[in-house]
Specification:
5-stranded parallel beta sheet; Rossmann fold; alpha/beta; single chain
Amino acid sequence: MADDRPLIVVADGIDQGAVAALSEGPCRVVDATAGFDSLRPHLGSAWGLIVRSRTKVTREILGLAPNLKIIARAGVGVDNIDMKAATDRGVLVVNAPAAATTSVAELSIALYILLVRDLLGPIGATRSGGWPRGTHGHELAGTTVGFIGYGRIAREIARRLLPFGARPIAHDPFLTSSPDGTPLVPLDELLSTSNIVSLHAALSEENRHLIDAPHIARMRRGTYVVNVARGALVDETALLAALDSGQLAGAALDVYEVEPPVRAELVRHPRIIPTPHLGASTHEAQQRAGSDVVQELLRALKREPLKYPVNPEVIGRP
């Protein structure tokens, strides 16, 4: 007898406890995490699709999945999903916007401290047998941290910064007031007054290479740039030039225009702290992301109200 329960295809690895919980629901679950060759045979009958960042859900992929009703992104950003194509097709997209908040906030503060204290060089020198003593670096206390994009993650960082004695300010064109009282300022003011410029904006065609040579030139000399959002927000060529000239004192990058990064000078630059896009990669964050999208899928299967629809306008379409 044929099993006519909806088929959910797991295209990218998520927490196994979450997969087990989904398998107990009113659906079939198939593991297609080995790559596209394992994914393609299941697309034609897929009702739901779970992805992280590896799988790119293009218009072509959607064309191979005529029965697809929902895509669950186990993370925050959905730039690996063609949202227009999904919405045109009436495919609902859900995500896990709160899962990585704590992990990304903690990573950001760790990077601020590594940069401001200029710790990367002394760590390497000590490992090589040196003993680089002497006056070194600065305190985080008294610095101004400027957030470009002031959503959930940036607000959590700002809250955690206050005990350090740092001052947060923010620029976000989508906000008219900040929920926590952090001053909202024009972009030029943020660039010219911040000691650390921290990026937390979603990527769009309008803000691609937002941090470019002209914007870097508006920063005070010796500013630090931290990007834990999307790589293409930063013009990497302009960033390298500013680091070499001393306009920027340092940068920390968890994301890159091309991942894995192909520019050796970027990851090897002595004033750059490079990390491999691991802001959301703690065990706790991945457990939350898996659980959040699985619970959302189970709600969809049971026709219950959803918590995290990205394109709610498709709900209720035939």
